């Protein structure tokens, strides 16, 4: 088969966005996906639960994508291909056990009023936090959008030093390291504000007592006010098709059922990949692998292809907590008890609050099924009514506090966990407990439910080999494995020790999510003008 400039391993968002961008830059590109469908964690499934219902089996919400530089570059082309984003002014809220609730909207004014409703003064504190964040948003978002282990990373550091001075920079860095618990305690008075924001820590792969969880939660809180909770009309499959279309129309190839078994090297440089079928696909300029470090160094490369310390570190790469998805099809919209806004909110966290999230995370990390998990209750039809028959509803539930490996026992002492693996019985019993808790907040839940599909962490891993143990974030996001240290301190960033071999995907900086950050950073690096042209661009043009 003819070769390509770049061959991508895997067809998740980072690969597809990177491939589309490189195609537009004139590269010939091939994307190889081992599953039967493209998209990786974006899996839109029609009729999953019942006829006429369209579910996002895994990832559902696109604020990271619509706020990304990749989307900014591709938007016009994607628009032309019919991709349309829908949004809401009510991205999130929390429903507490006593029937009260709290909300975050896309209006600063409304958020000030909402937080004041729970504790006078919290509104002004929100405003002050938001203003302070926005003043340095270029740096905060810059940390997540820059190749940190590079000249660009150094420039970002210098920019921060110029702005803050030495002591100020130290204070800023200290703020980045703060836990969510400390940040919330220092910033807001009411338990409701804490319970509104703490569950968002889970969406960063962290827990509320971990280093950097305060910074990450703050980034999300501000981003939600700024960007809401966009979803593509009809589901994420629309985005996947549009990106693949860009590659194909540029003459590139996008293949499914193509399991890459090996990256082939010639004189220490990646020059091709070999498929499970034995076929070899040459790559003249780059092989870009959207895989975990475990797979890259343990399977795709040979024992002598990478330095021993890197291969050893990759073998020790840690995966995070497991996750469960519950999908419900409802014949009518949910009737939430309490504040009617709950029925319009894209993502409702059903949670006892900050301490509840902390407890459930701790239980999961100790190998227990949490007694009172945080229920991430997504309501896609609050944003896109096209996902089900007229007058119906779907519920997308995430449970992000489950053990990473073998389950030791149930913290509530109710469920028999057997040998600690996810059997069908354990999966359904755990889901029953969650649905029963949700029914305490939604009065018609039981009678309105038409059908349900549940995915255990083991089912999730079976859908995508990168989600080891059902860790939906491609590896623990603890500080020693994040930012500068992702994926490995021995091989930071996206260059690997093998020439022309790049690593992208959730296991690499800036980590998980649909922002396509790693695919974009590698595209930028590969298309960077050669040094003389870069220097010439800086020479002032006389007479202008
Ligand atoms: C249940 C769930 C819900 C989520 N919800 C959201 C959300 O709402 N919003 C959000 O922003 N993020 C969400 N995330 C996180 C986000 O979806 C992921 O972090 C992101 O999609 C990962 O993208 P990726 O580019 O790393 O590739 P992935 O999506 O992980 O895709 C990688 C692909 O590579 C393929 N592959 C791996 N090895 C090989 C090989 N050797 N040969 C060929 N192909 C291979 C895999 O089959 C897979 O299709 C969610 C994730 C999950 C699992």
**Percent range of helical residues:** 25-40%
The count of DSSP E runs of length 2 or more, i.e. the number of strands, is: 22
Low-confidence stretches: none
**Rounded to an integer, what's the Rg over CA atoms?**
23 Å
The count of helical stretches stands at 19
Question: Could you describe the largest sheet, including whether it forms a barrel?
Answer: 7 strands, mixed
Ligands (ions, cofactors included): flavin-adenine dinucleotide
Mean pLDDT reading: 96
- Secondary structure class reads alpha/beta
Strand fraction band?
15-25%
Q: What is the first-to-last residue Cα distance?
A: 50 Å
**Shape descriptor:** globular
Q: How is the quaternary structure best described? A: single chain
